[in-house]
Write a structure and sequence with these properties.
2 strands, 272 residues, two-stranded antiparallel ribbon, single chain, 3% strand, mainly alpha
Amino acid sequence: MVKDITLGQFFPGNSLLHKTDARIKIVMLIVFLTGVLAASSPLAFAGVLVWTLALMFISRLNAKILFKSIKPLFIVLIFTAVINVFFVSGEHLILKLGIVSIYREGIETACFMVLRLVCLVLGTSVILSYTTSPLDLTDGLESLLSPLKKLKIPVHEFSMMMTIALRFIPTLVEETDKIISAQKSRGVSFDTGGLKARVKALIPILVPLFYSALRRAYELAEAMETRLYHGGEGRTKMKVAKLKASDFIFLSLMIAVVIGIFLLNKVELGIL
């Protein structure tokens, strides 16, 4: 399960999404999240699903890698579905067993919530995490947040901190897997016993993991200081990002899709 966490990884490629400017991709992600969260009808959710599949196709990433990002959320998806099936009431009763009642509206809500979570994870990974390098992501965030510099907010430091935190996730996942393997070789069991025993068994994992994370952070800070790294004003870039016409066309298409999802919501509700 630990190896299935792919959040924060970057997969180099030559697709349209890989070539799109990081600033545009950040805005596209906001637009995408708006569209997914705004969907409230079957037609709108169908549009969101087609939209997500289209982005996956454009990214040219391996389908196994993409669906691997959903695997760690399997328990969350099941919990979300169960909560909605048993606790959402409506007008169309399907099954009643004692105090438990299952309505058609509950099943529909469960399906929509699971689909929404899956699309959110896949879309976020495809648009930003998997197709954007750490340096491009830092520069994109810094550029978009540059107006905040007038308020004396350390934009560059914030952008760098966010990017490093995101890119440290795969490293910590790998470290966790090594620690678990080492503890299992010493006879530690993580799958047996009650809840208290399982929680107690996590201590041999968390302590070395925190130590390793702090050590890596210290080494990174020391390496940056040794190279006289400084950000913000006066910092030059080897590759200056330039916006292209294709970036604006791609963003315009994303905005058009969001507008279409809002229209599909109105069609389903009978407003149009």
